[in-house]
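Tutorial handout. Part one gives the primary structure; part two gives the three-dimensional structure as tokens.
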Amino acid sequence: MEMNIQVIGYVRNKWDEKDKYSADGVMRSVSTIEVKEEFADGLFKIDKYKELNIIFYFDRSEGYELKTITHSGDYRGVFACCSPFRPSSIGVTCVNLIERKGNILKVTGLDAMNNTPVLDIKPFTGLQI
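Part two.
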């Protein structure tokens, strides 16, 4: 099986160091997503949506445990929590879109560190199956 995954852009924010990283603090702050120029046309009419799903790569995450202790102290399986230490190192977050300027999206709610590779962006439609 062949997988076709490309980095389409990068997260830009003030969160660089793991020891200063706070998921709550990051999610409350403003981040930008800088989409590579060759993918900028894919943002056409994205500003019609208030919320977006951002799929990104936990590029600084090393290793994982199938059961882990969460920040709240709860003991759970990795698929039942938001730990960045995952078998596939993929993160997904629903963000609020503040504005789009060209290939730059300004958002809140993104729990990713500075320079995190972005793999995909999809509108959040609120539809549940």
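Part three, for discussion. Residues 73 and 81 are 11 Å apart (CA to CA). The first strand starts at residue 9 and ends at 12.
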